[in-house]
Amino acid sequence: MSSGDFSSVPILDYSQALSSSTRAKFIADLRDAAINVGFLYLSHTPVSPELTQSVISYIPAMFNLPEDEKERIRMRNSPHFLGYSKFGAEFTKGQADMREQFDIATKHECQWKEGDPEYRRLWGPSQWPAEDLIPGFQKTLESYLDQVQHLADEFVTILAEAIGLGPDGLSKFYDTAEKMQHRSKVVKYPAAAGPSASTQGVGPHYDAGFVTILLQASDHEGLQVQNLQGQWIDAKPVPGTFVVNFGRAIEFATQNIVRATSHRVISPAHGTPTPRYSVPFFHNIGLDVRIADPAWKLEFPQSVLAQRDARGQHTSDSVNFTEFGTEASGHVNLIGRVKSHPDVAQRHYPELFKRYFPDGLPEHGVAY
Ligand SMILES: O=C(O)CCC(=O)C(=O)O
Ligand SMILES: [Fe+2]
To answer: What Pfam families does the entry give (predicted)?
Structure first.
């Protein structure tokens, strides 16, 4: 594929990037995928398959935790929007998402202090279920997130090369490691409740940040990505791979070279005996980055700009994150969270809550 629309999501073998004889091929394939698709599968990554399998084995037990334990760690307790969200609590495009989830992030001490921009409170510690209820889970997930973060850190340097920047071409978007936090979720999509019940696992949306690394943690289909013509293309689980996609922040930062591609999840059909599970990992950029400011402007070679122009514009019915043109990245993310989880906002960000929900608490979040 050199340009034009896509009808499947390419699979890239990450081990090719790590060997000098195949690196150039990997970089060329990555450039095509980033510009023309915005989605790819990554096989043969350094993330331990045993550790990944161990995370997958824990997932049913998480969702089977006693209701009072889920309540104890619900997101409403956390100014960092981390914790448990019950089934149907989020809306995308005005419709409830048929999923239940735990938001869990990489280790981080909150660095916000009085007088700082409010968005610095967005990052802080996760809420973990009690160790005796799910022994070993926290340690396993923390190790997994650590490995996926390393993969993402390294992947970004290869991506920078692929789009014609040096390997450090995107590093100015990140703070030092101790100032960064990356977020993950463990998500359950049960089968549709009836033959004509909603199958919106999650409605069409873009991710916010630079890079998402998604583990499809069961063998259910359901994830779909939207091509330039607006058709929905299946991204079925491929064993031993991660799905990688790009968010609105990198699309803005790269002058639309790297595509943020709209995607959605269709729930398993009514009667499917097991739920679909997934574990997305959202690799963030620094909270204070203002993508539209000259300090963060990037210069691209003509050949890469030409490949972007050959692709053309996409049509999409996704919502969200248009504010990167004017606001700090942390603020854009905070607004996204406020809209998705107004109950959390009402408790921890009362001013913002009033601005976005002047009529008080809606029954559900209103956007993703
Ligand atoms: O569950 C999935 O496969 C995708 C989830 C997703 O797109 C998201 O939460 O942003
Ligand atoms: Fe997503």
So the answer is: 2OG-FeII_Oxy, DIOX_N
